[in-house]
Amino acid sequence: MKPIALFTLPNCKWCEEAKNYLKSKKLKYNLIDLSKNKEALKDCQKHGCKGAPVILIGNSWICGFDKNKINKELGIK
């Protein structure tokens, strides 16, 4: 299984949706708060992501909560 990192911001509706979705699929992930980690924020921006959540699966960056992209990257239906 590819490692998953979930970059979030406080009080972000879509970040909560992403967390709940990953939990519902019983996937383990590292949670990174972009409001507390400026280096992670720079990394997300460097990969073209302008908001949260950002999901990093292996080497693939997904900007925003996109179930189809997440499922495709993880090979789940």
Structure description:
With about 80 residues, this protein is of the alpha+beta class. Helix content is about 40%, strand content about 20%. The protein contains three helices and four strands. It has helices at about 15-25, 40-45, 65-75; strands spanning about 5-10, 30-35, 55, 60-65. A four-stranded mixed β-sheet has the order 2-1-3-4, sandwiched between helices. A hairpin with a 2-residue loop joins strand 3 and strand 4.
Concise summary:
Residues 4-60 form the Glutaredoxin domain. With 77 residues, this protein is of the alpha+beta class.
Q: Total number of β-strand segments?
A: 4
Largest sheet: 4 strands, mixed
Low-confidence stretches at least 5 residues in length (pLDDT < 50)? none
Gyration radius, rounded: 11 Å
- Oligomerization: single chain
Average the pLDDT over all residues and give the rounded result.
96
Strand content: 15-25%
Helix proportion range: 25-40%
Structural class: alpha+beta
| Shape by Cα distribution | globular
The number of helical elements comes to: 3
SSE ordering: EHEHEEH
The strands making up the biggest β-sheet line up spatially as 2-1-3-4
Give the distance, in angstroms, between the N- and C-terminal Cα atoms: 15 Å
